[in-house]
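assembly run, all chains below
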Amino acid sequence: DTGVSQNPRHKITKRGQNVTFRCDPISEHNRLYWYRQTLGQGPEFLTYFQNEAQLEKSRLLSDRFSAERPKGSFSTLEIQRTEQGDSAMYLCASSLTGVASYNSPLHFGNGTRLTVT
Amino acid sequence: GDSVTQMEGPVTLSEEAFLTINCTYTATGYPSLFWYVQYPGEGLQLLLKATKADDKGSNKGFEATYRKETTSFHLEKGSVQVSDSAVYFCALTDTGRRALTFGSGTRLQVQP
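ok done. output:
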């Protein structure tokens, strides 16, 4: 178990630029989640995949955000035309399919910290 | 919608003191409740969980009891250690949902 891996660890970009983050889940996990965390707050749900299918998206996921998981393994999160309000820690988590969510706890990565200047 | 409210931190305690971190929730269905912990420089990790009313979750000396009548899931530990210094997040998943709803976190600082 090598854990959930996220790259890059830090990203600084200018307003208006596009950025892409990558998440490699634990290999046998078929569920993958993206969360966003701002300073002093808990993580907020963005979107969730089961295998390659994106099954749920939060209202927080505006049209400038897109997430993919093309082969049901790694996932990318792209933010187009970044804004200063996008500055946050972006967290990825993965889990196994279970009868109910409590049977398959989430394993989180260390996150990608985005700073938009 | 679902929400989780935690006591604000930081909570500063001396080693071997008793810890309580309050957590209350609002949910429309029958939620499962969780405590996650984030140690400095590390990712969030599950500390304990409870899936129905009156269940008690426990791990590493921490305990929390699912109280439906008070919609609470307070985290307790009888004797904290310096190594328990971290940010603690209360969270829930509601019926039929996969996503976790988190509280804002409570930072615990344990002094030797």
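The interface with chain B takes residues 3-4, 31, 33, 40-45, 48, 55-56, 58, 91, 93, 100-102, 105-111 of chain A (CB under 8 Å).

Chain A has a mean pLDDT of 91.

not gonna interpret more than that til we talk
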